[in-house]
């Protein structure tokens, strides 16, 4: 019985020893292969000019980064049934034979980024990669790709094509219903057409920043109802259709910074009840329509810095349950009675002083928080005077200050009473319970904001009695 047991142990152990030995035995010259059943083959930075003639059949990953490989022949890697990850980044690949990746039935990740001589791909380049989930073609000098190149990639979820030369969104992505992430930043794309994103029903992330986009068609994003992150910043957009973002009810972050927008329509964001961060910075905005943000009941950060805003009517932010943090620096603010309400709001909620006045001349360069507004005998707010203008007296505002203050405080008091809170509690407590921690949202920071956090105006206005939360199925 003892001998039989010993023999059985030997029989079970042999295959494992053989697997390790086979992996090491067939390891390409100058490469390193790990000593395990599903081995990794490391051939990066070893000066290879071509694909090695053989790889361990047990290989689960192969790294060929930073070599001088120029050509991929048909079945360039032989038959590797266990291979899941293949990386060819930073080579000199200029031509890929159709069928080069045949024999890799389990491949889920293929990286070919930073091959500057790849300017053309055949329709059947990726044939037989039915399990491929992630494809990286970034910085490859591609001008276009065939419309049917992904026809045999039904499992593809992540596509990296940033920093190429595309002048339009590749038609090849249409109908790719499993795509969740598309990276097309730093190309030369000029438009988002009505059918550019057709059939992308599971798309959650789309990056189109730093292109040449000057046209966005009506309902261009209507088929992307699961979209959560949309980057359109640093383009040439000066106008948007009224229904540009209709249907994007799951959108959490929208970046429109660094464009040429002048006006903000009150129709653009009407469907964005789940939006948490909105970037409108670095545009040329000088006018915002009343109630432009009224449906943004989940908003925790609004970036309006670096525009041409001179005033900001209170009606823009009605209803008052809006918002978390508001960034207003680098605008030519006219600190007259029209924005006195903003000073009071900042004082009431202990906000950062960041609104520098550009005019009138008597307060130019002064922070809004330090501006003192005088009153007429009738209680009207009096605009600060222009130092170089002689006049009989300051022009009164349209409404007595006492009336404006009374309306504002009365409105707040009623809302607080509905919640069973006193004004004293509301004015002495900073409430952040309805906001998302912005630290988790820094991936969406629009370029140009940088570290101006000291200039940020932070609003904490928690009035849950004002709205009903609408829950959308976004998973």
Automatic annotation (TrEMBL):
The keyword Repeat applies. Residues 1-19 form the signal peptide. One of its GO terms (biological process) is visual perception. Residues 331-382 form the LRRCT domain. Keywords: Leucine-rich repeat, Repeat, Signal. Residues 26-61 form the LRRNT domain. It holds the Pfam family LRRNT. GO terms for cellular component: dendrite; plasma membrane; postsynapse. The keyword Nuclease does not apply. This is Nyctalopin. The gene is NYX.
């Amino acid at each position: 019985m003892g001998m039989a047991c010993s023999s059985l142990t030997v029989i079970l152990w042999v295959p494992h020893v053989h697997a390790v030995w086979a992996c090491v035995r067939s390891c390409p010259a100058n490469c390193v292969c790990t000593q395990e059943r599903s081995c990794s083959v490391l051939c990066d930075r070893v000066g290879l000019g071509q694909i090695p003639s053989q790889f361990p059949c047990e290989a689960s990953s192969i790294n060929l980064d930073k070599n001088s490989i120029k050509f991929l022949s048909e079945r360039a890697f032989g038959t590797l049934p266990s291979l899941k990850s293949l990386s060819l980044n930073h080579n000199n690949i200029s031509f890929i034979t159709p069928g080069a990746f045949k024999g890799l039935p389990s491949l889920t990740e293929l990286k070919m980024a930073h091959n500057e001589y790849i300017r053309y791909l055949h329709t059947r380049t990726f044939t037989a990669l039915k399990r491929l989930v992630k494809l990286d073609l970034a910085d490859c000098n591609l001008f276009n790709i065939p419309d049917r190149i992904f026809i045999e990639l039904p499992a593809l979820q992540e596509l990296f094509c940033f920093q190429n030369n595309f002048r339009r969104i590749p038609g090849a992505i249409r109908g790719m219903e499993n795509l969740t992430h598309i990276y097309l930043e730093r190309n030369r794309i000029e438009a988002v057409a009505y059918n550019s994103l057709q059939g992308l029903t599971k798309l959650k992330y789309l990056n189109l920043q730093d292109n040449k986009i000057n046209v966005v068609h009506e309902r261009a994003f209507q088929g992307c109802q699961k979209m959560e992150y949309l980057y359109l910043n640093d383009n040439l957009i000066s106008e948007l259709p009224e229904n540009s973002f209709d249907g994007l009810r799951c959108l959490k972050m929208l970046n429109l910074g660094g464009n040429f927008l002048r006006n903000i329509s009150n129709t653009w964001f009407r469907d964005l009840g789940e939006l948490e961060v909105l970037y409108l910075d670095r545009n040329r905005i000088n006018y915002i329509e009343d109630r432009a943000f009224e449906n943004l009941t989940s908003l925790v950060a609004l970036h309006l810095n670096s525009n041409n805003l001179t005033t900001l009517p209170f009606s823009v932010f009605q209803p008052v349950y809006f918002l978390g943090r508001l960034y207003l620096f680098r605008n030519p603010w006219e600190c007259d009675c029209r924005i006195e309400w903003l000073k009071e709001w900042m004082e009431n909620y202990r906000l950062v002083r960041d609104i520098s006045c550009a005019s009138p001349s008597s307060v130019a360069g002064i922070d809004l928080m330090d501006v003192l507004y005088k009153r007429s005998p009738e209680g009207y707010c009096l605009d600060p005077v222009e130092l170089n203008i002689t006049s009989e007296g300051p022009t009164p505002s349209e409404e007595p200050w006492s009336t404006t203050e009374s309306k504002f405080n009365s409105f707040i008091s009623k809302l607080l009473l509905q919640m069973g809170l006193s004004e004293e509690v509301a004015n002495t407590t900073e409430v952040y319970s309805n906001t998302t921690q912005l630290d988790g949202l820094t991936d969406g920071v629009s370029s140009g904001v940088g570290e101006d956090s000291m200039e940020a105006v932070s609003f904490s206005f928690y009035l849950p009695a004002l709205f009903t939360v609408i829950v959308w199925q976004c998973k």
